[in-house]
Every structure is written in C-alpha cells, then in structure tokens.
Amino acid sequence: MRAASPRVRFLVAGAQKCGTTALHRFLSAHPGLFLPAGKELHFFDRPLPDDWSGPEGPLYETAFAQARPDQLCGEATPVYLFHTPSLQRIRAYNPAMRLILLLRDPVLRAYSHWRMERTRGAETLPFPEAIRAGRARVAEDWRTFSYVERGFYGAQLTELERLFPREQRLVLWTDEMQRDHAGTLARIWRFLGCAAPPVPPPPAEIRPLDPAPGLAPLAEEDARYLRSLYAPDIALTEALTGRDLSLWREGALSPPSSGR
C-alpha cells in the first residue's frame, strides 16, 4: 500500500560526486520549492516496509514539516540511483515521483569518490588497486568501495525505467551545468512545472582538485583501463538519453574535480 497523497514530489537521486551538492543549493534557493537544509536524508536506502499505511511515510515527511502548502517538496540523496532497493521503495512511496539525475564522466567520478574515501580515512588502497582487485570489497561495503560500480549509469537507468516512466526522469550533465548554468536551471523548472524564480541562483564552480600530499593524481593507465571497462555501458547510456558521450570514451574532459 502506498502513502496517501505523498508530500514529497521530486528527488535528486544521483549520482554521487557529480555536483549534487551545488544542485541542492540551486533548488533550495527557489521560493516555490522546499528541500530540507541537510542534504541527503538517506531515507529510502535503509530497510523499509512495503506497507506505507504504517508510520514510515509520516516519519519521512516530518523532514518537510516547515514547507508551505504551496511549495513543492523534494530532497537530494544521490545514492538512490545506484541502490535498486531504494528505487523500489521510492516507487512504493510515490509512483509519480519526479527524479532528477546529474551525471559526469564515470572515470572522473570514480577518482573523485576514491579521493573522498581516502580523505575520510575509510580507504587504504591506492587508486589502481582499489579499481581492480579492490572491487571485490563492494560485497562487504557497497557504500564505500563502489568507485567503479556507481559509474555504470546505463545499467542504473535501465533499472530506473523499469520502475518509472521516462517522462518522470530528467538527466542532466555536470559539464553542461557548469557551461550553461541558466539553461540547465530552465530545464529543471520546466520539468518540475514551476516558474523561474525572480532572482536566479548564482552559478557554483565545481573546482578541479589540486594534487594532495600522499595522493597520486589520476594516471593515464588507470583512466584507459576504466574507459575500456565502461565503454559498453557508455553506449547504453547514450541510447537511453540520446546524448553523444564520445568525450567520455575519449577522455577529453576537464581534470578531476571535487564534484560536490
């Protein structure tokens, strides 16, 4: 049983290290939208019942208690796209949910993810080992060690389309959000069915990462390895989105960035 009249109507569901923090900030600045101040509620990626007539739905919606009745409610938890059970639970909660997805070159995303975990102290392996033999650790901790796996966007979009109609998802691109900030926001407002805000949110730069002490920069050998690994999925992503992703295959994009 699904929640009656679900309060939450849209999600930024992915992908991690693709600029979703900046996107959350842009959306929060719109007076017609309400997002909780704390990004990443992580509600649907924990065990939940299928019966939304119980307390779980109201518990989730307490995070939106301060929203005005005329505001459209949403939140941003980028792990949802990668975690199939989350998508299933989202559908059970609100089958009409609108899903915003922000994607970037999966090779750069993987490196940015690894660097974040090294900085946190959760990762001890160097990047070359982490993306090769280290992938076996995903079974024990899929949140931390999924550097490679989270970049298979085509497979994730395929699962998403099994659960939601294509018109309920909007795919955006990190490089395009940087290059055409106003145009990207206009697409979002149209997708959500809201007017452009009187004062548009200012752009936020997704800054390249400077080399850090003790952390090697992304090596060309590792980039080539990952591009070969991702090639079939990149083709699938192109087919599902209609986007030419030849730059991802060629590796002709900007240096790795924080992707916050």
Automatic annotation (TrEMBL):
GO terms for molecular function: sulfotransferase activity. InterPro entries: NST/OST, P-loop_NTPase, Sulfotransferase_dom. It holds the Pfam family Sulfotransfer_1. Residues 10-195 form the Sulfotransferase domain. It comes from the Bacteria. Keywords: Glycoprotein, Plasmid, Transferase. This is Deacetylase sulfotransferase. It comes from Cereibacter sphaeroides (strain ATCC 17023 / DSM 158 / JCM 6121 / CCUG 31486 / LMG 2827 / NBRC 12203 / NCIMB 8253 / ATH 2.4.1.).
